[in-house]
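Q: Structure tokens for this one, please.
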Amino acid sequence: MAELHLKSWRFRAEREADWRRLETLLAKAEAGGAAKLKRDELLEIPVLYRQALSSLSVARSISLDQSLTAYLESLCTRAYFIVYGARTRLPERMAAFFLRDWPAAIQSLWRETLVSFVLSAVAAVVAYVLVRRDADWFHSFVEPGLASGRDPTATTASLRDTLYHEGTASEGLSVFATFLFTHNAQIALFAFALGFLLCLPTAALLVMNGGMFGAFLALFVTRGLGFEAGGWLMIHGTTELFAIILAGAAGFSIGWSVCFPGDRSRIDAAAEAGRRAATAMMGVVVMLFVAGLLEGFGRQLIQADYARYAIAVVMLLAWLAYFYWPRTRRP
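A: Here is the predicted structure, written as tokens:
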């Protein structure tokens, strides 16, 4: 027993200075970040880390006292996160997300995005044609609560009032706009969350949302208000509908990986697709926030049709350029 204690004491005495030095550098890095360390100190940490790992291995192999082994395990764990962990701060990480991670995730989903767009567009066109031919089709695509009186029974004057009128009608429009935004946000989140169910719920939600858009537009067109309604819808719609399409693409990505995992297990394939889709969805939340600002302020304050269309086009081009403009890959 005395011999073991002596061996432990010698082992500690020969190496403890390096352990303490590593502990000091780790405490400095943990308190102020790696930026607080000097260049020589940054180079010193990996060397001391490897020495501590070697000491831990020896301590375990010759069965030194448990307190020393526990201390070295804790020290090596702390050093691992400094040497191999994230070195970026929150502002840098956010910058990396907006500059690289989010656009890269969207670009990787281009096939799913195209499918999502086609489903939404076809549903909108079908609903538009059916409602133009027979107004009774309107209620097949739009729930009465969501329509909020803006249905084939409404007069042309009341429909026009919802687009421009000040006062009470404008207040009612604000309530409707909030309801519509909440509905679309739910569609986006469910389209993503239900993608793992073999893509079917995601496709159904996109078809439903596209059909609702087409039915609403057809209603206003039949009253000679198509151009005006288009500006009212699209000032925020190019952002909001794009967000829904991207959410559907994220859902399709997960569902497709579950259906066709390739050489991987379904769990592994879904996990990989889920990480990419989650990055896209974090950005979709940002898009929905922007759409909410445009809907809550821009559409209410801007009454000119051409100004509304101009904002809609600018926002669409800005999103397309942001996502799909070629970027230089980091080495």
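A few notes: The radius of gyration is 29 Å. Residues 266-301 form the longest helix (36 residues).
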